[in-house]
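Query structure, 491 tokens:
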């Protein structure tokens, strides 16, 4: 028998691949990945099939509320926010899909990736009916000739007059905002009062929430109830379970098994746990947030020193202030802490905690600065702190002022600020003296946080640690510091 020409073999193979891509969502996901992330290697894993199975049940109408919770960098956005809308519209181009992200930048990025797919030669060859409508194609919206399409919005954005058959919420809050009560309230309120009213049909319309868990008050904890189907995939299995896969397969997990060992090993998880701290790792990678205060700061994480490192090895002296307004018995305390940065980490050297009025506060602050000549004086720009910062500012040489007294305006609550620096403490990079008169009060506040009556010492501490942490991240090359969310450029 004569062999077919190679060109015919290639055409036949191409037709077979096209046939698979039209029918197999998992194969379609791989092709989408190659289209939007061609420089990276696609590493297949069962968790992608698990997501595909759960999403297909939504598409065919078996479920209409789905929560998918898994660690960062496991393709959840490409699968759910890029590939899935392209797949749904290929089957039903009249379907209207709304995709929500925590920021407009992310929403536009995912929309751009989606457009890469639906405008690609291979996609239009497979689904020629998906040519877009020329009358509507913007940075945030793609409309098909059948009137369906994909709309990209950000949390808090205006969606007045807009509706959808499928609403996808993809990472509604940034990880660095974890445990921020204000941010959690903002997201929950917008979800309840705005987004949840945008389904065109409340009975048949579908809502999909895909995210990494962040805290016990995040949107997953708020929105998901018994009416939702959930796919929860921790990086390290915590129990025995059987997880349905696309087609007819089942993945069986046992405690301790890794989600995708080809991409992230136990050693890499150990590094992440050290980087994020127990609270951050448990939430983002195990999908098991710890209640606020339930392990965020532990006294045993702090290391102790009996003698400070040699003075010649110090690279920074920090003064950190948390100031109060009044001096009566019910008022908060004003707290000053002196920290030094030296080999091994950051060391608390001294502390003052007292109820004092502003004239005495100013006098004490200027005396301490004259004695220590600190590199940075950290004063929160709130209440009396704003006035103290101004008083200190004018005593310094003009060129030194922006660097030594950076403007600090906290945009996150106390729990969020503590959570940001908890990993530093857990890694053993924060040192307290083995003996000091102020230790009992400080230790008691650490142990009671965040339920203690006063948390002034914690505020001063997290302010210093947050500044030092961002000093390390920036390495002073661009000379930019991020202090609780606010950038300060040195003159």
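Result returned for the query:
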């Amino acid at each position: 028998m004569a062999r077919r020409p190679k060109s015919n073999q290639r055409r036949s193979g191409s037709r077979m691949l096209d046939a698979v891509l039209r029918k197999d969502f998992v194969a379609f996901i791989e092709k989408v990945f190659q289209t939007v992330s061609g420089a990276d290697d696609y590493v297949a894993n069962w968790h992608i099939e698990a997501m595909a199975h759960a999403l297909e049940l939504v598409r065919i109408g078996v479920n209409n509320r789905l929560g998918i919770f898994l660690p960062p960098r496991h393709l959840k956005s490409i699968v759910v926010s890029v590939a899935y809308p392209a797949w749904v519209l290929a089957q039903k181009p009249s379907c209207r899909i709304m995709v929500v992200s925590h920021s407009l930048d992310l929403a536009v990025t995912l929309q751009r990736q989606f457009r890469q797919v639906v405008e690609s030669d291979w996609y239009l060859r497979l689904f020629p009916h998906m040519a877009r409508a020329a009358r509507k194609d913007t940075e945030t919206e793609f409309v098909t000739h059948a009137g369906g399409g994909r709309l990209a919005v950000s949390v808090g954005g205006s969606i007045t007059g807009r509706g959808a058959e499928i609403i996808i919420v993809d990472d509604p809050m940034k990880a660095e905002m974890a445990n921020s009560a204000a941010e959690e309230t903002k997201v929950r309120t917008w979800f309840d009062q705005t987004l949840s009213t945008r389904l065109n049909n409340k009975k048949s319309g579908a809502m999909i929430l895909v995210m990494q868990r962040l805290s016990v008050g995040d949107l997953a904890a708020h929105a998901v109830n018994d009416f939702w189907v959930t796919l929860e995939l921790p990086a390290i299995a915590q129990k025995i379970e059987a997880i349905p896969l696309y087609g007819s397969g089942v993945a069986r997990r046992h405690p301790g098994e890794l989600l995708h060992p080809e991409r992230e090993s136990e050693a890499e998880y150990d590094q992440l746990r050290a980087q994020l701290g127990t609270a951050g790792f448990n939430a983002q990678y195990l999908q098991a947030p710890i209640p606020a205060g339930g392990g965020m700061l532990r006294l045993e994480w702090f290391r102790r020193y009996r003698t400070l490192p040699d003075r010649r090895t110090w690279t920074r002296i920090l003064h950190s202030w948390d100031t109060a307004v009044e001096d009566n018995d019910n008022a908060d305390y004003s707290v000053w802490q002196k920290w030094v940065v030296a080999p091994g980490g950051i060391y608390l050297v001294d502390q003052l905690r007292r109820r004092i009025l502003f004239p005495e506060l100013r006098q004490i602050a200027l005396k301490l600065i004259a004695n220590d000549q600190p590199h940075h004086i950290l004063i929160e720009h709130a209440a009396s702190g704003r006035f103290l910062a101004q008083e200190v500012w004018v005593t310094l040489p003009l060129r030194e002022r922006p660097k030594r007294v950076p403007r600090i305006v906290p945009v996150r609550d106390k729990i969020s600020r503590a959570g940001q620096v908890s990993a530093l403490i857990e890694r053993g990079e924060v040192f307290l003296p083995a003996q000091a008169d102020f230790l009992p009060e400080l230790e008691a506040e650490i142990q009671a946080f965040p339920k203690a009556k006063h948390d002034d010492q914690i505020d001063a501490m997290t302010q210093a640690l947050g500044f030092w942490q961002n000093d390390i991240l920036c390495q002073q090359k661009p000379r930019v510091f991020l202090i609780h969310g606010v950038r300060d450029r040195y003159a």
